[in-house]
Amino acid sequence: RLSVISSLILLCMYVAAFLVAAYAPDLAWPAAIIGGILGGVAAGWLWTAQGLFFSRISKYMVRANLRQQRQQRLELAEKKRAVSDSGSFVPPHRDQVRDNPTNLAVHHHHRHH
Q1: Mind listing the pLDDT tens digit for each residue in 58-104?
Q2: Are 76 and 105 in contact (CB under 8 A)?
Q3: For the chain, what is the HEC assignment?
Q4: 38 CB contacts (<8 Å, ≥6 apart)?
Q5: Which of 67, 81, 83, 110 is the most buried (most CB within 10 A)?
Q6: Given phi > 0 = left and psi -120 to 50 = alpha, else beta, which region is 92?
C-alpha cells in the first residue's frame, strides 16, 4: 500500500513538472527531463505494486472461497446425515443435483411398478 501511495505522489510530481514547463519557459527543458524521469520511475513502481496487491488479493479471495466451500460441504453433510437418520431420504435425481448441488429437499418419489 505504501508503494502505491508513494508512486502516486511521484506521479503528481510528474504532472507538476510539466505544469512548470508550461508556465516557466526558461525551465521547460529541465522540468520535462525531471518530469519524464519521475513519471517513468512512478509508473514502474506503481505497476509492480499493483501486481503485488492484486496477487495478494487473489490469494485472499481464493482462501476465503475455499473456506466457504468447506463450510458448505460440512453443512451439506450434516443435512444429509440428519435426513438419512430420519429414514425418509430419497436421493434427488441427478439432474436436480447438477442444477442445484445444495438441493437437499426430501423427495417423495412415487414409483409405478
Answers
A1: 999 999 898 999 988 888 888 877 777 766 655 666 665 555 555 55
A2: no
A3: CHHHHHHHHHHHHHHHHHHHHHHCHHHHHHHHHHHHHHHHHHHHHHHHHHHHHHHHHHHHHHHHHHHHHHHHHHHHHHHHHHHHHHCCCCCCCHHHHHHCCCCCCCCCCCCCC
A4: 10, 11, 13, 14, 17
A5: 83
A6: beta
